[in-house]
């Protein structure tokens, strides 16, 4: 019986998705152009609690282990709920390698004295996280976390925005690789 348990334990260690196989991927795995859509849920919007978004994300590796990311989001959250206005929002960030698997956003400063958020990125397993922290003049804070996870079919996206620790928006979506 102990020999059977030993073999079963060994097989579980080698099983795909197990802790032994869950090594972090590198930033190169995320490189390319990704396109898809998401659904956004908001706790603070009276007329647009649930909206659809079109998304594209471009990740490019840079010198010295850094990377850049640009994401475009077509938002539908203003105007008539039956015929919402579309608004394109573009965000572009560059990251420098701080240590293996962790990057700091270029242009970060003192989060207490800056208008721009303090941001960093890291990879855990098959997911690239980008986190930003903004501290308002009155001391309140906001965090935004983007989690982009590679899957067998492309990439999943999860975005969470919190103000003072309370979730005010969440978006979930799927993207496919459109170009290298």
Would you kindly provide a written description of the structure presented here, covering whatever features stand out?
This protein is mostly beta strands and 180 residues long. The protein has a single domain (22-179), classed as Lipocalin. Helices cover 7% and strands 61% of the residues. The chain has one helix and ten strands. Strands 1-2-3-4-5-6-7-8-9-10 form a ten-stranded antiparallel β-barrel. It is globular and about 45 Å long.
Quick structural gist:
This protein has 180 residues and is mainly β. The protein is 7% helix and 61% strand.
Give the N-to-C terminal Cα separation. Answer: 51 Å
Order of helices and strands: HEEEEEEEEEE
Mean pLDDT: 84
At CATH level 2, the architecture is Beta Barrel
SS strand fraction: over 45%
Write down the oligomeric state: single chain
Radius of gyration: 19 Å
Let me know the number of strands.
Answer: 10
* Fold-level CATH name: Lipocalin
Alpha-beta classification: mainly beta
């Amino acid at each position: 019986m102990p020999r059977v348990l030993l073999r079963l334990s060994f097989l579980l260690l080698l099983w795909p998705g197990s802790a032994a196989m869950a090594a972090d991927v590198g930033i190169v795995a995320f490189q390319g152009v990704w396109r898809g859509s998401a659904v956004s849920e908001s706790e603070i919007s009276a007329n647009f609690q649930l909206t659809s978004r079109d998304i594209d994300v471009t990740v490019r590796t840079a010198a010295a282990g850094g990377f850049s990311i640009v994401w475009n989001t077509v938002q539908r959250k203003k105007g008539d709920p039956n015929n919402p206005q579309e608004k394109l929002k573009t965000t572009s960030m560059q990251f420098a390698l701080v240590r293996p698997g962790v990057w700091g956003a270029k242009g970060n400063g003192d989060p207490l004295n800056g208008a721009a958020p303090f941001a960093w990125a890291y990879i855990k397993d098959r997911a690239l996280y980008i986190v930003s922290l903004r501290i308002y003049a009155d001391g309140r804070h906001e965090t935004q976390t983007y989690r982009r996870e590679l899957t067998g079919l492309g990439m999943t996206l999860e975005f969470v925005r919190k103000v003072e620790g309370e979730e005010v928006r969440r978006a979930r979506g799927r993207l496919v690789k459109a170009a290298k």
